[in-house]
Write a structure and sequence with these properties.
Rossmann fold; 5-stranded mixed β-sheet; alpha/beta; 3 helices
Amino acid sequence: MNNEWSTPQEFFNKLDREFGFDLDVCARSWNAKCPRYLDPETDALQQTWPGTCWMNPPYGHEIKFWIRKAYEESQKGSTVVCLIPARTDTNWFHDYCLKGEVRWIRGRLWFRQKDGKIGRPRFGSVIVIFRPDHNQPLIKG
């Protein structure tokens, strides 16, 4: 199953009015929400994410790497706003997401694939915001 879906435009626009995004860090040309974006060929996990960033990562098992990267970039001075599944039972959610601001989304969002197919996941989503001045430090133990 394809795990690349486009963020609903109206939903993104509301957040963009609040944050003013500079960079979409996890996109392809057909679903990029910002004029500047990083695609798989750019290997965003190895790049620096400057400014205010939007992230709607693939929802597969690799999501933990994206969440960790978003948190780490915020520690370097960027703001990263993430649209992710509400997987509150996972280690990555507890280890990273709870260090930022969590905004709960009522209901489920509708997403679009490249071919125009529209679908909705069987789970809810959340917005997690990692800001350089609001994050809690990781506790090593």
